[in-house]
Amino acid sequence: QVQLVESGGGSVQAGESLRLSCAVSDRPGRVYDLGWYRRAPGKEREVVAIISWTGDRIIYADSVKGRFTVSRDNTKKTVTLQMNRLKAEDTAVYYCYSSTQPGAWGPGIQVTVTS
After folding, report:
1. CB 3.0–4.6 Å: which of 32, 66, 82, 106 could bond 96 by disulfide?
2. SS3 assignment, position 88
3. Of residues 35, 109, 112, the one with CA closest to residue 70
């Protein structure tokens, strides 16, 4: 089973940037998507960004397109979410996700954007 641990969360002012990282631990030889989900207070969990193994397929939520960038390094076994021009609406707990079978989730990390 893959293990995921997020880091880099915190509190920032609207318009500022923040970078989330996720360390991935998994046995060799598996191919899988990685990505980020978030859950805002009082809302359902939603997809933020998904990136395929090779990076040829990337999906962003409409609400973050043009502001967030997801990337991965399969040698270092990390996935990153660069968040620019943050808005108060981006405040949520962010979760790293792997599409390994079975899928796996990180414990989540808080991102707070003040306005």
Report:
1. 106
2. helix
3. 35
Pairing state between β 10-13 and 109-114: parallel
Please check whether residue 47 is in contact with residue 94, taking contact to mean a CB–CB distance below 8 angstroms.
no
Going by their DSSP bridges, the two strands 109-114 and 78-83 should be labelled as: unpaired
DSSP strand pairing (92-98 vs 10-13) = unpaired
Task: Write the pLDDT tens digit of every residue in 16-28.
Answer: 999 999 999 998 8
Q: Which letter does DSSP use for residue 56 in this model?
A: S
C-alpha to C-alpha distance for 55 and 109, rounded to whole angstroms:
24
Phi and psi based region of residue 56 (left: phi greater than 0; alpha: psi -120 to 50; beta: remaining): alpha
